[in-house]
Amino acid sequence: MTTHIQSPQARCVLALSGGIDSRVLLHLLARYVRDNQCPAMAVHVHHGLSSSADQWVERCRQWCTEEALPFQVAYIQFDTQGKGLEAAARQARYQALERYIDKGDLLLTGQHRDDQLETFLLALKRGSGPKGLSGMAASMPFHQGRLIRPLLHCSRAEIEAYANTHQLSWVEDESNQDIRFDRNFIRHEVMPLLVARWPHFPQAVQRSAELCASQEALLDELLQERFQAALQPDNRLSVRCLLDCGDAVRAQILRMWFHQFEHQMPSRVQLEQICHQVLLAKSDANPCCRIGNHEVRRFDGYLHYVPVYADIRDWQCQIKFNHPVELPDGLGTLTLTDGTLLTLTLTLTLTLTESTLLTERTTEKPVEFGLDKRCLSTPLWVSFNPEGLVASPVGRKGRHKLKKLFQEYRIPSWRRRRMPILISGQQVVAVAGLFVDEHFSGSDYELIWSTDT
């Protein structure tokens, strides 16, 4: 058994669970490092799901000390909302490992041929197409580097034989025996029957997975031009371009779009919902389709892929001069300071999906209005609920509902309750990053909305 790493000088980061697969890979990696003098380290992700989790940390630490490899522990907590325990743990594990992968690094994981068979059968059970049936790739982009599975063509029996030959010890996760989990049921109940009947079944599945991956790559290559025509630099997707496609092409372009986010891939039913309920919605509708912890939204002729945000409409806080207010849900801080240039400043770093929403307003020039001292004549409050509020933005005549103003400023519905509203008594003073009410425009104060993310 040998490892195959194409770049001998790349730093190798081993995902070390402590099970037999990653334990064998640790032994192989240590030998590879000695032969090639390349940098390497091991990372153990502590889920806290087992009563033995702390013991596993110490066993992994001991093995890394014996192999003279640096060792790190990533402690994680995760939410299973919207997905099963296995899927949630897997997603949280890879998110934790991303923190250790710098540009050009290789993340090594211990999946093998039997794991590939389990993955294939699980995808078959879900009714997956070529993308799902292609299983796990031996090499693929990951964060700033690549994910490598050196043992993917080795069987579990070969790995066990190697471990016994080299007298390696490893930890046993008791949950691996629980056949309530689908993967364990396939491993303990289904695979033995299949392999007993057809000994070469795992190799046949590996070939089928590789063929499916090849077909998927061909589809992506043939549709790349159409996909790029629909895709905007900020990752919006043109509704017009999608509607010009046939059903099969449209579904594939949507899969290509989701693939770049490296999040949960939608099911066939969800793709149909996106096509029929979101793409074909009326222009004044506010359609939405939830995919895991994100949503597909339609706005201004484009599809947007946005997180499911917390509901903060009932949050409010008093704001005082030179006392920054910490905004909820990672929205940064809001500060009322002395005005010099007297501009209402938006210094918020947006996600790729959101960045376009204020593009026309922020790329031309800042909103050049400050606040008059009259705004402090009554206590000032920060709110995120625009319902029932009206305002008179500088340069506009008359008073208008915030809902109408948000529409005119082309702010999509999912951001309208995430923009801080400054209120004096019952009057809107300003909407941070958008406008100042003409009754409070002046040269005394400056409102700054900022975030470090």
Automatic annotation (TrEMBL):
List each copy of the Lysidine-tRNA(Ile) synthetase C-terminal domain by range: 380-449
| Gene3D superfamilies hit by this protein | 1.20.59.20, HUPs (3.40.50.620)
Major location category of this protein: cytoplasm
In this chain, ATP is annotated as bound at 17-22
GO cellular component entries? cytoplasm
Which locations, inside or outside the cell, does it occupy?
Answer: Cytoplasm
Checking Pfam families in the record gives: ATP_bind_3 (PF01171), TilS (PF09179), TilS_C (PF11734)
* Keywords noted in UniProt: ATP-binding, Cytoplasm, Ligase, Nucleotide-binding, tRNA processing
Single GO molecular function? tRNA(Ile)-lysidine synthase activity
GO terms classed as biological process: tRNA modification
Q: What class of enzyme is it?
A: ligase
**Which EC number(s) does UniProt give?**
6.3.4.19
Catalytic activity entry = cytidine(34) in tRNA(Ile2) + L-lysine + ATP = lysidine(34) in tRNA(Ile2) + AMP + diphosphate + H(+)
Q: Which family does it belong to?
A: Belongs to the tRNA(Ile)-lysidine synthase family.
Q: What does the domain comment read? A: The N-terminal region contains the highly conserved SGGXDS motif, predicted to be a P-loop motif involved in ATP binding.
The UniProt function text for this chain reads: Ligates lysine onto the cytidine present at position 34 of the AUA codon-specific tRNA(Ile) that contains the anticodon CAU, in an ATP-dependent manner. Cytidine is converted to lysidine, thus changing the amino acid specificity of the tRNA from methionine to isoleucine.
**Name the UniProt record assigns to this protein:** tRNA(Ile)-lysidine synthase
Give the species.
Vibrio gazogenes DSM 21264 = NBRC 103151
| Name of the gene | tilS
